[in-house]
Amino acid sequence: ILLLCVLGVSAATVRYSVPEEVERGFFVANIAKDLGLTGEELSSRQARLVPEGDEQYLQLNQHTGDLVVQEKMDREALCGQSEPCLVRFDVLLESPLQSFRAEVSITDINDHAPVFLNKEMILKIPETAMPGARFLLESAQDPDVGNNSLQHYNISSNDYFHISTRRRSDGRRYAELVLDRALDREERAEVTFSFTAVDGGFPSRSGTALIRVQVLDINDNIPVFTRSLYKARVLENSAEDTLVVTVSASDLDAGMNGEIAYSIVQNSEENHQTFKINPETGEIRLKKSVDYEETKIYEIDVQATDGGGLSAHCKVLVEVIDVNDNAPEVILTSLTSPLSEAAPLQTVVALFSVRDRDSGNNGRTSCELLGELPFSIALLAADSYALVTAEALDREREAEYNITVRARDAGAPALSAAQPLLVRLSDVNDNAPTFTQASYTMVLHENEPAGTSLGRVSATDADAGKNARVSYALVLPSPGAPSFVSVDAESGAVRALRPLDYEEVRAFQVAVRAADGGSPPLSAEALVRVEVRDENDNAPVVLHPLPNSSAAAGELVPRRARAGYLVAKVVAVDADSGQNAWLSYELAKATEPGLFRVGLHSGEVRTARAVSERDAARQRLVVLVRDSGQPPRSSTVTLSLALVEGFSEAFLQLSHGPASRPEVEEEEEKENLLATYLIASLCSVSFLFLLFIVAFSGAKLCKGRLREGRSPPSAHCYSDGDFSNSFVDVAGTGTLSRGYRYELCLTTGSGNSGFKFLRPVLPSLP
């Protein structure tokens, strides 16, 4: 009762009627009016028809509520001789779930005429047959039912017979030929007339066969059956040639007139195809297996004929016993797939019915689901079920369900059938994107150009389709805040927007949002920290001594200073960091290279040896400061030192020393210019010397050739007393000392004169 109340199942059945063979679109009824609903309610509640069988013969208009014919229906094909012929269906409404049982009765029209299986019948009747004797005739077949079925028989006019129409227990009519006057074989050996079957339709239809009655010679006794009605039972699906029943008749005549032959009067095509009789023994056997679901009772007319042509009739009723030979059938009416994962509880997923062609307990069925699934089966009506959701669904946990519905009957042994259902879940945007990391750390080298890739962020979404399509964007910073990076919306790649200076920005962080493509979209955020790596882009800066300070202009060093004396300390810094800021000091240039040294890491300028008197009073040192970057950068500072004995000398040297760095630079320029002049003069003198040697050698060669053409000159040597007084007295008044004697030799024609020191003239000792 509770289940019926929850599901809203209506116990009343709505009935309609429609003639068979009507065209498609034929109006049957307005269901909305009969159910007390409006067309808007039918549409909003998604009203639909759920047929009992496989075929959908009717169609429901959700907007108007009209029930119309969708496919032409043949009552004889649908129901055969069964009456009434009903097409059952359920009207299913959702929100809330309701089901109404309805049925349409297919009324018969007279579209079939009676038909005889044999167009010619031969009867053998003895001439001794008494008036009033009845003879069973073959029945005509008419698939129609009710008034449109076969109603009566008649025969053409003759002098001997009339027809009698009678009704069987199943309602069908059969004919008996009644003898009106005695037959005389000698007068007429054969009587022929037409036999007509007429139905009750309007207009009526009929079928005709020919009856030939052959008059036999006298035979005193007719066969007599032991019983006029035989009853037998046979299990359905019994094998071919199974014995059903044995009929028996006897004849008091002797000889050939007492020999009996059995035959089945063909009153239906079905009997002819199902049973056979042994003409000698009267055993009735199956020609094929019988099916309880098709025919439950067979009525057979058996005729016993003796050798003289006399015959008798009996009836045989064969009851088919049902066995559980039909497994239940699960007929799927509708299936919602894919099903939204957000479907609420009790959402209808599938509609199906169960049919078992057996009867009794063999046809009573039940349904169940195999396995533990978030679904359940709800009973809508007799043998009609709905598969509904019983728990919340989650596509990310289970994307599809393979559901097996098993129907089982109550037979012994029980038979079952399984119907697989594949229900796929459609995605709902119920999962936000998830980053692979809560925070990301990326490195950017300073001075990298715009567009440099720093890395990428990645997020996944457990949903599917567009709900899982993730796009990335930066969370907008506060107004006025600088933006250093960008994020590619598709790939999540993080790129620099402009070069950065480590000395200005050493690290920063931004928030990246990942949003899916759902509606509304869901999003998540992750923190990206960017660390700027230092590059060696800054040269060392000398803090002490400053280039224009007095310390750079002059430092005082006493001449009594020993080795290791601290003269000055160079202090420098580098704006870079790490290895790029590690500084080293070295002496690049000095007036006396061996006099001073510089601490490699301390920058202290100390004397390398003791100061001596030979060292210049003024010393100039150039200290190089170099960092450890790649490539290294460097700076220089110039120190001017004064070697002093005391305060007064120091004051004097400082007063005459270079007052400023520009003066020192001017002095250096003058020294460089003087060196240039010296080099130019040396080159000029060398050139002139070479030119003189060449000229002198040439003159010598020319004079040698002239002397070869003259007489050799005579040489005269003059001693100390040979000079006249008119000559200069080189001995007494010249610049040479008297203590020497000179010998002068002159040759005529000689262009040169020479002196020859002979020997010194030693004074005579007293």
TrEMBL record:
**InterPro entries associated with the record:** Cadherin-like_dom, Cadherin-like_sf, Cadherin_C, Cadherin_CS, Cadherin_N, Protocadherin/Cadherin-CA
CDD domains cross-referenced by the UniProt entry: Cadherin_repeat
- Pfam families tied to this protein: Cadherin, Cadherin_2, Cadherin_C_2
* Swiss-Prot/TrEMBL keywords: Calcium, Cell adhesion, Cell membrane, Glycoprotein, Membrane, Repeat, Signal, Transmembrane, Transmembrane helix
> Which Gene Ontology CC terms are recorded?
plasma membrane
Q: Which residues cross the membrane?
A: 674-697
Select a single GO molecular function from the record's annotations and give it: calcium ion binding
List residues of the Cadherin domain.
Answer: 10-116, 117-225, 226-330, 331-435, 436-542, 557-660
Q: Which GO terms describe its biological process?
A: homophilic cell adhesion via plasma membrane adhesion molecules
Query: Where does this protein reside within or beyond the cell?
Result: Cell membrane
Topology relative to the membrane, per the entry?
Single-pass type I membrane protein
Q: Which PANTHER family match?
A: CADHERIN-87A, PROTOCADHERIN BETA-1
According to its UniProt entry, what is the function of this protein? Potential calcium-dependent cell-adhesion protein. May be involved in the establishment and maintenance of specific neuronal connections in the brain.
Q: What is this protein called?
A: PCDBG protein
